[in-house]
Amino acid sequence: MAEHSLGEFKGNILIVDDKADNLRILSSLLSDKGYKVRAVLNGASALRAAQSTPPDVILLDVLMPEMDGYQVCQRLKQDEVTGDIPVIFLSALDESMDKVKAFEAGGLDYITKPFQGEEVLVRVETQLRLRLAQREIQTLNQSLEERVRERTRQLEATNQHLQQEISERSKAEQQLRHMVMHDSLTSLNNREHFMRYMQELLTQLQDQPDRQFALLFLDCDGFKVVNDSLGHLVGDQLLIAIARKLEQCLDPGQMLIRLGGDEFLILVSELSFPQNATIIADRVLEAYVAPFYVEQQEIFINVSIGIVIGNGVYQKPEHVLRDADIAMYKAKALGKGAYQIFSPEMYEQALERMKIENSLRRAIERDELLLYYQPIVSLASGIISGFEALIRWQHPEWGLVNPQDFIGIAEETGLIIPIGKWVLQTACTQMNRWEQFVRHPLFISVNLSMKQLYHPLLVEDVDAILQSTKVRCDLTLELTESMMMRDVEAVKLILTQLKARSIHLSIDDFGQGYSSLSYLHDLPVDAIKIDRAFVSGNHSPNPDADLSRPEIVRTIIDLAHNLGVKVVAEGIETQAQLDRLKQLDCEWGQGYFFSKPMNCVDVDNFLLTGLQHLS
Ligand code: C2E
Ligand code: MG
Ligand code: MG
Fold first, then answer.
1. pLDDT of 522 strictly over 90
2. How is domain 192-342 classified at the CATH fold level?
3. CB 314 within 8 A of CB 320
4. Which of 126, 445, 546, 564 could pair with 476 as two cysteines, CB 3.0-4.6 Å apart?
5. What is the CATH number of domain 355-608?
């Protein structure tokens, strides 16, 4: 409708008048102008006609019998279909017409009779124009409303999309936060989570001086063995099984964390009594007594626990963790499968260890290591048969350091591998010199550590040293019982390879460990060294002192001889001990009675002055 111009638009007009003449005049006037005209003689017909085909304009006579124009107009206006059809009232000039009433009834205009053709046309056209404009506005409004609705729909859709994106993003963010704060294998809290939580806890504790917390640091004993022997998949399954078991050891409010590897933490943020920490530790140790079942395998594993009972004096989570770690190491050192509560002295000791470790790393390159040599004497002849090389560390500040104070650290850190090579190389080179001073053959005995024995390059390294030094004397390697017991089959293989190079093997500190000679059958061992505890024991030397455990010494010697193994007695300090050992047919002896370990200058003099004969 909006694009119609009035020239083309010829509307429908309904004329209502009870006078047939009027109807005719108006009809022909309007028809001539191209309007479609319908004419009716009374109100009722008018309402029907308007209902069935709504006209564009109604010309409505005011005065009619039965229903007058006002009533008709009112009825038209009340009806939804006809309500907005413009009504122009027709009234004779001499009839009294109530214009106010006409407008109130809904009429828009009026024409007075007798009709002026021009006026009728102008008024009709005006109404039609108005109606057209109204419809255009209506159409515009409708399309505007439609556009608004469409835009609203679009906005709603965009909004919904945005909401969805926001919720997806926040879900992803939550997942990410969960991942950052949790261990993917066990789903436990991880280190990051612990560090943040602990920091918050320590901040809170600043204002609560009486409040205490406990941190338990758990480290599995021998987890590496499981991983190496059964594979990482089983190792992972075992860690999951451990996590689930540990969860059962906790009371509400206690936090379990996987720190990494086989290390777990239990945090008790509110510790009512210090003994509660040890109750949890006992519960954990108890839980480890039963085996873990992983892929139909029964796995026994132990745990060592370090405990920190702390308060707001701690400033940083790292410090709490460090102290718990120190206590855990102490628990391991004191024999695994146990717990230790952290004390400040432990920190001092750990610091000391770290100082030693750092210093030891540079000891070889700074030429601070040296060897002492202790004679090993043939008891039958009294002649020096060989020497045991014993390491010392000449530290620029600490003076001469004994092996007990650094060999353990060298073992743990792996530094024993380069140190051990250095010892072997130095001892062999030294022996080549001394061999020239004496007329009889000498052997050199060198201590080997657990790490060295199981090191994959041991045989290769020994070969290289034998070749580079061209050592002429016999070489003996000293091993301890516990080293052999860890993996008898593997050790057998290594020892056989060493034997193939004419290296002698002896078991050091015999009697301290398993005290079983049965494995000697199986292993290519040449000699055993009876531990000093059975020879001179721990009491202060008394010149008349006999062997501290004569029966044991006799049994060991007899059994060894039956197996074709020779015997060295360690720690001979008195003539009486020497005499008894001679009686028992012990082949060799070593001890302060003959000589303390000496540096190479002292050994030079010792050999040069012809003191090889010691008893
Ligand atoms: P070990 O192999 O059993 O060496 C014997 C230890 O007993 C030596 O202590 C020696 O000085 C001491 N000793 C010898 N006779 C007597 C005695 O009559 N009375 C007393 N009270 N002690 C005596 P040292 O030199 O302090 O060595 C201690 C341990 O350190 C050695 O025990 C050995 O296990 C280890 N060690 C020494 N050097 C090396 C090395 O080069 N490599 C490795 N892996 N361990 C070494
Ligand atoms: Mg030894
Ligand atoms: Mg020994």
1. no
2. Alpha-Beta Plaits (3.30.70)
3. yes
4. 445
5. 3.20.20.450
> Residue 528: CA atoms inside 13 Å, Cβ hemisphere, count?
28
Number of other residues whose CB lies within 10 A of the CB of residue 147: 10
Q: Which amino acid is at 165?
A: E
pLDDT of 477 higher than 50: yes
The pTM for the full model equals 0.64
Cα–Cα distances (Å) from 154 to 148, 161, 168, 276, in that order, read: 10, 10, 21, 63
445 Cα: distance to centroid of ligand 2 (angstroms): 8
CA of 390 to the centre of ligand 1 (A): 6
Per-residue pLDDT of 92-146, as tens digits, reads: 867 766 888 889 999 999 998 888 999 999 999 999 999 888 888 989 999 999 9
pLDDT per position as a tens digit, 349-383: 888 888 999 999 999 889 999 999 999 999 999 99
Q: Among the listed ranges 6-15, 136-145, 483-492, which one has the minimum average pLDDT value?
A: 6-15
Going by the DSSP 8-state scheme, the letter that residue 613 receives in this structure is B
User: What one-letter code names the amino acid at 332?
Assistant: K
What pairs with residue 370 in β-bridges?
Answer: 392
Query: CA of 491: how far to CAs of 476, 519, 549, in Å?
Result: 16, 11, 30
Q: How far does the chain reach from its first CA to its final CA, in angstroms? A: 138
407, 535, 592, best to mutate for ligand 1 pocket (most atoms within 8 Å of CB): 407
| Fold annotation for 2-181 | Rossmann fold (3.40.50)
Query: At a CB cut-off of 8 Å and minimum separation 6, what does 104 contact?
Result: none
Domain ranges for the chain = 2-181, 192-342, 355-608
Contacts of 370 (CB under 8 A, 6+ apart): 391, 392, 393, 394, 599, 600
List the residue whose alpha carbon is closest to atom 41 of ligand 1.
Answer: 391
Site residues for ligand 1, CB cut-off 6 Å: 374, 390-391, 402-404, 407, 423, 447, 449, 478, 508-509, 532, 536, 570-571, 573, 590-592, 597
With b meaning 16 or more CB within 10 Å and e meaning fewer, what string describes 35-61? Answer: bebbbbbbbeebbebbeeebbbbbbbb
If you measure from the C-alpha of residue 615 to the centroid of ligand 3, how many angstroms do you get, rounded to a whole number?
A: 21
| Half-sphere exposure in the Cβ direction for 205 (13 Å, CA) | 22
Separation of 32 CA from ligand 2 center, angstroms?
A: 140
Best residue among 390, 446, 506 to mutate for probing ligand 1, ranked by most atoms within 8 Å of CB: 390
Which residue, among 500, 381, 377, has the nearest Cα to 445 in the 3D structure?
377
